[in-house]
UniProtKB/TrEMBL annotation:
Protein name per Swiss-Prot or TrEMBL: DUF4124 domain-containing protein
Keywords: Signal
KW Signal (keyword) present: yes
Signal peptide: 1-20
């Protein structure tokens, strides 16, 4: 059976040969994300990502398994499938971002447009709810007048109160739904922005590392 140390070494050798022109992204001891030409041996066993020259994820290498875990063929297969699914998800996300946007400012503009539409709808709903509440107050005032005079309220007034209460409740649910959409859209664009910024950083870092390597070679 291949030892963990040897498995890590083989993984590093594989990285340096099969993916020599690519970069690697891994987590350091502090949990920070590091991108470099190689993965240090002490971090390779934790798993890492192989990046294309554009920063796209082209391979996800899962964490190194223990000897007992390696004997669990089902676990090994699940991790392989999980790594491939994650690679495909990240690659599709990266392609989408690179095709749709040129700068992070493009993402900010798209976010602002999407939020503007949602906030307009939210404003309309809030306005409708305020109007319905005003009408409800008027209707309740009429009912109070009937009660003070000892008269029975008109059926249409009672019906109007129930309808207005239903409209206000429905508007409240719609407002909550729209507010949830605003939060979700904001979060989605924030993730896209951070991911796109990482892609740009990888491209810039690759250029810098290439210059440094060329200087060392010379």
């Amino acid at each position: 059976m291949v030892s963990k140390r040897l498995a890590v070494l083989l993984a590093i050798i594989s990285c340096s040969t099969a993916f020599a022109d690519n970069l690697y992204r891994y987590k350091n001891n502090e949990g920070g994300t590091v991108v470099d030409w190689h993965v240090p041996a002490k971090f390779a066993g934790r798993g890492y990502e192989v990046l294309s020259p554009l920063g796209e994820v082209i391979k996800v290498v899962p964490r190194q398994l223990s000897d007992s875990e390696l004997n669990d063929k089902d676990l090994v297969e699940r991790l392989k499938r999980g790594a491939e699914a994650e690679r495909a998800r990240l690659a599709e996300w990266d392609r989408f971002l690179l095709l749709r946007y040129s700068t992070v400012e493009d993402i900010d503009a798209a976010r602002d447009r999407a939020l503007r539409e949602l906030k307009i709808r939210l404003s309309i709903l809030a306005s409708n709810q305020r109007v319905a509440r005003g009408r409800l107050e008027t209707a309740l005032s009429r009912l109070a007048d009937f009660e003070r005079r000892g008269e029975d309220a008109l059926p249409q007034d009672l019906e109007a109160v129930e309808i207005l209460r239903s409209e206000i409740a429905a508007a409240g649910r719609s407002i909550e739904e729209r507010e949830g959409q605003v939060a979700a859209v904001t979060e989605d664009y924030a993730r896209d922005r951070n991911r796109f910024a990482q892609l740009q950083d990888v491209v810039l870092l690759r250029r810098s590392l290439s210059r440094d390597r060329a200087s060392r070679d010379n």
